[in-house]
Input
Amino acid sequence: MAAADELRMLDPQTAPQIEQPATTMESHAMLTPRPEPVEDSLPILTRRLTLRPFVLDDAAKVFAMSQEGGMRTWIPDQVYADEREAREVLCYLISQYADPGTPAAGPYVLGVCLRGNGELVGHVGLSPLRGTVEIGYAIEEKHQGKGLASEAVAAMSEWGLRRFKLPHILGIVAADNVASCRVLERAGYALVEEAEGRLHGHQGLIRTYHCRR
Output
């Protein structure tokens, strides 16, 4: 899981405040193969996943996933009080597909579903961040450890770079969220900075990755 994204509108006041870089490194992790070329239309299909727009009927599952331990630890601002709040968030996200319709101005978040049976198992999205765009993602705990997050991130990044003509996409995660760092690295993101900062209420080293066209 990571910040990218978010299932809430990103508030610039709560965005990670990165201080002077501590180190600059390059990632040499094994990359997840890039998805086959996809059309600009939705849904986005990968070998195992369908990335599709949210619908209001997703509220119950979105609420249930928000209660999991990883969400509470790493992205607590995406933990919802009840199904009603989850539905309100979905209403907002669904409205963003048309207006503004671009992650440069508002969140563009898709549901991650298993291609075989259509089960909703997470989300992946692009959101504005201080004049650029970042990616965010989360996969339901019972489906973690299978490479699904990297598959979703790679596909969303490939599609988003082309569809919205973005020069690059950032991935910003806590350095001690090792699993989330690996997701980005396997999806083809390069580590460009590691610096002290604050992210989702956590103070510590923050890693910034990017993916270019």
Remarks:
- Strands lie at 44-45, 49-53, 108-114, 120-129, 132-139, 168-174, 190-199, 202-212.
- Residues 8 and 89 are 7 Å apart (CA to CA).
- The chain has one domain: 12-212.
- Residues 1-6, 8-38 have pLDDT under 50 and may be disordered.
